[in-house]
Amino acid sequence: MRMQGRRESANVRDVRGRGGAKVAGGLGLGGLVLVALFAYMTGGNPLNAVLDAVVGGAAGTGGGTAVATGGGEAYQPTAEEQALATFSKQILAGTEDVWTEIFEKAGRVYEPPTLVLFTDAVQSGCGGASKQTGPFYCSADRCLYIDLSFFSTMRRELGADGDFAYAYVIGHEVGHHVQCLLGTLGEAHRKMAKLDKESANRESVRLELQADFLAGVWAHHDNARFGSLEDGDIEEAIRCAEVIGDDYLQKKARGYDQPETFTHGKSSSRMKWFKKGLQTGDLSQGDTFSVPYGSL
């Protein structure tokens, strides 16, 4: 992606290095820990899988900017991690620009989320979460949370790499924030609370696929505004959408899939809705809730 000269969002809270208490929280609203899920399904230890990726990242080049911990110490990120932090802030700024304009055209006001950068564990408005949770959005405090080691994990364990693949992950979580502002998220969760497990899973799939679509809508308008996409970028994001499909992960782990347990959607659906948003940039075409489930 062409990011030179792009501004960084000021809606960021950097708590890297501050650590956190041990937590037992589950997945966030949109969080899907690719490696942790894969390790779980193959009988491995999800925490060890993620820790392995963190150790690998720490072996890279040094440097970076020290981050105050609030306890008199300083957390020293690697140069790679700090570059990812800068990139994440730039992507968040791009989502602010795009969604502010889209909301204004609809006669609404866009209230941007806060990006919280953390390491190891964090306390969110939705409860405690660890880096095993992966990137997630919390509607209670309207923040999206990212441990940047997730991106190296995504690259090492699933082969999903590239700056636009990382941007897609952020765009997806911001998509959940858009759903929150539009009331879609709350409505879906209220409905899910009244359904049996399989039906609730289907509702979750619809919610996640719409967030994929919204990530595509953002990318469409970001590229139109900034000319941000380069050759190969779209393929990076499509590859990412493919390898985080429920069927792909389950088949890779078990050799077969169980559609009734899907919560995020199969690979073809995730790619389809992301591409639809990317190609059209039209918010009105992202109604994943009225489409027959088998056609998603």
Describe the structure in your own words.
- Helix content is 51%, strand content 9%.
- The strands form three sheets. It has a four-stranded mixed β-sheet with strand order 1-4-8-7, covered by helices on one side. Strands 2-3 form a two-stranded antiparallel ribbon. Strands 5-6 form a two-stranded antiparallel sheet.
- Helix 3 (79-105) crosses helix 7 (197-226), helix 5 crosses helix 7 (197-226) and helix 6 (184-192) packs antiparallel against helix 7.
- The longest helix is centred in the last third of the chain and has 30 residues, at 197-226.
- The radius of gyration is 18 Å and the shape is globular.
- The protein has helices at 34-41, 46-58, 79-105, 149-158, 163-182, 184-192, 197-226, 233-243, 246-254, 267-280; strands at 12-14, 67-68, 74-75, 114-117, 121-124, 127-130, 136-138, 143-146.
- 45% of the residues are buried.
- With 296 residues, it is an alpha/beta fold.
- Residues 21-72 have low confidence and may be disordered.
- Strand 2 and strand 3 form a beta hairpin.
- The protein contains ten helices and eight strands.
- The protein has one domain.
